[in-house]
Amino acid sequence: MTGSTDSGRREGPGPFQGLSGKVLVMTILFVMLGEILIFLPSIANFRIQWLKGRIAQAEIAALAAEAAPDRILSHDLRTEILKGAGVLVVSLTRGETRKLMLRSEEDHMIDASYDLRNVSWPTAVADAFAVMLEPSDRVIGVIDKPPNMSGDMIEVALFEKPLREAMLRFGFNIFLLSVVLSVIVAGLVYLALNIVLIRPMKRLTRNMMSFAQDPEDHSRIIVPSNRKDEIGLAERELHDMQSDLAAMLQQKSRLAALGLAVSKVSHDLRNMLSSANVISDRLAMVEDPTVKRFAPKLIISLDRAISFLTETLKFGRAEEAPPMRERLLLKDLADDVIDTAVLQASSRVVLFNHVPPGLQIDADREHLNRVLTNLLRNAIQALEQQGGEQDGRVVISSWREGAVVVIEVKDNGPGIPERVRPKLFEAFQSAAKPGGVGLGLAIAAELIRSHGGEIRLHGTGPEGTVFHVVVPDAVVELRPGRRGARNRA
């Protein structure tokens, strides 16, 4: 059995369609996302520290201006001090007094004002992005506590453009660092996952594709590694599944080959049995009492065999016909089965019919005959293989439980081997004797299931084996009419 040709031509996934590419892309994206989450507070903190640095420089400039003789600065010196501090105006507040320490010659209107003494992180992040997205060069005012405690509060005014340029440079550096870090981390994660996860998954995938092309080839079954994680568990489960599937397909192939062989043999065997049936008809005319006794049973057995072979050839497979149920006396049927089995049994095997005389069963006569014949044949074979001087006993008994008839076939043989019991009613699995095929119990179970019943192993061991055949009566459809409740006068 081979897989479809499409499976043999399947191509592997593209560079970014396979697990490796997806893991690499996702790792880069996740690292970039992490860098973005880190960038938001970083750019806000950079803005605050940059402004605090300008405030520190402005405080030093204000103290320098205050220390000048007569606190008078020339125009050029004041311009240089303001330019060095990067501010336009500096004022200090001491107590209740607010004093303008430095200011440029030009007048500037403040476009926005920020207080760094008490700022929250969401506000700081929003202010930082507002600076980066502002196209014009605004003049901003900044309020903070003097770093050198030269007063209670310091206020400065400055152009925003240098701050925006510094923030853009910082953001670009962070972006480059994020890209480099993402590539490095993604590469390391990719290598680790490729070794730990991707390669074993590819091995599993290749094995499944190879196994699908020829499931009956045992060399294609995966060999599990010694890993203790989920990959190792998947390998072991896949190995068990492939082994079971290969065994099942091998069994199906044997069944198909057997079916073909049975069809060929049945054709010739039917002709042979037809000839034997003609001879048995001639034997029935012989006046010998023994021949008179067994000839009808021989004719019935030959007719049954010819009918079964004909049906097998007709349908092209050994498919059982639906049961033709009837009410029949089970004791008489058991006598017929025992009479046939006695001819095949040795003298050390004794067969008993303990079925109550009046017990009726609703079943197909032919099907039930075959079921009991298979059970008796297995019991006789087991007893004949058993050593010792004790006689072998096979007892057929039965009883009714409401609408169900239970048939018990019990022997005092050696019991069924432990290895056979789990698959006792599966084809080719229950052959315990040398040369056995293992079909008898499988056929019997199929015939009883067609009646809506079951056959089960009730007990087995050194003291013997007991089978129970449970056959329910056919369900009778009740008429919808209802009888009157009042008694007739």
Which class of secondary structure composition applies to the elements?
alpha+beta
Please outline the major beta sheet.
Answer: 5 strands, mixed
Number of strands: 12
Q: Helix tally?
A: 10
Instruction: Tell me the distance between the termini.
Output: 78 Å
Shape: rod-shaped
Task: Give the overall average pLDDT.
Answer: 80
Rg for CA atoms: 49 Å
What ranges have pLDDT less than 50 throughout 5 or more consecutive residues? Answer: 1-9
Estimate what percentage of residues fall within beta strands. 15-25%
The H-and-E topology, N to C, reads as HHHEEEHEEHHHEHEEHEEHEE
What proportion of the residues is helical, as a percent range? 40-55%
User: Which sequence of strands runs across the widest sheet?
Assistant: 2-1-5-4-3
Can you walk through the features of this model?
The chain is built from 10 helices and 12 strands. By secondary structure, the protein is an alpha+beta fold. Among the domains are: 19-183, no CATH class; 322-472, Histidine kinase-like ATPase, C-terminal domain (Heat Shock Protein 90, 2-Layer Sandwich), CATH 3.30.565.10. The protein has a 5-stranded mixed beta sheet. β11 (454-461) and β12 (464-472) form a beta hairpin. The radius of gyration is 49 Å and the shape is rod-shaped.
